[in-house]
Amino acid sequence: MIILPSGKTLIWKAVDISDQRGRAIDVIPKIEEIILNDLKEQSIKVACGICFSMMAALSQILSISVREIFKESSILKNASTNAVKLVNYFNHPNNVYFIGKLRNIQRELYSKYYAIIRPGDTRWNSYYECYLSLIRTKQTLKNLVTRYEPSEETSSKSTELYFPTDICQIIMGDLFWSRISQLAILMKPYCGALDKLQTDKARLHDVALSFGYFIKFWEQNTDRFLSEGIISRLEKRWNDWEQFILLLSLVLHPKYRLDKFNPDLETINFVTIGTWLDYYYKAWTSEKPTKLLAQFESYRVKKPPFNNEIYEQFGDDVLAY
Fold this sequence. Notes:
InterPro entries: RNaseH-like_sf (IPR012337). This protein has helices at residues 24-41, 54-72, 74-89, 96-110, 124-136, 138-148, 165-172, 174-197, 204-219, 224-240, 243-251, 270-285, 292-300, 308-312, and strands spanning 2-3, 9-10.
């Protein structure tokens, strides 16, 4: 796609190279070879190039889903805000005195030091690590506050250093620790999925599996009010996507096929999937298939080369298969 200075877009060329390149870093020279060289031959000046990844876009959508936990629960949002407040306090150069005292107590209790991790603004995995880092050093923080909490008799003219009252209240509050522990549990499956989806080897079926895992995770959560709200938001996200592309990616994976679907769903079967497969083939190639459904039937009955024995020879590398 070419974006003109006027803002108008032109479709120049679309080429599927997914079977030739498995890593994002390998895509750049392929773009130069297929697209940019064509433009240069036409004497079209290229100011910059943007490589769009559907996987990156879907990963970003799933990442946004983490934020919805805080939209559903103001209590958890407040706990996260207080966690960040603590982290910022113990990473600020003005508080080097208490940072040093904290490290001394860590050495006394654990014979090692634990860093308190500051989260990134848009990286939810870093928030998960932030909560864990606080939980890991919870006892040292409480010990520190016990030693440096201002008493009611403390004079404003005192030269002794004490913690601010709000910091003391956060650290000594049992509900705070309970809630960030809950947050760490809730965010763990999201972080695991995002770690996988943000790699070069992630595929569309990984998105479908992650989405299903999130739904199952929340269905098993004991907080029904929160779970129902999150599931409702996840279902809305699902409805906004090109669902059948994700379903096709799962069904056409020889390791999964229909195994991950509820067998009671009448709308998910090889007949329905075959219809959508035929539709997308025509939409993408502008041609009528000649043997597509016959090959799909061979795939359904696991006729070689669509059987498990052959697939396993590729070491679970579905792209190579």
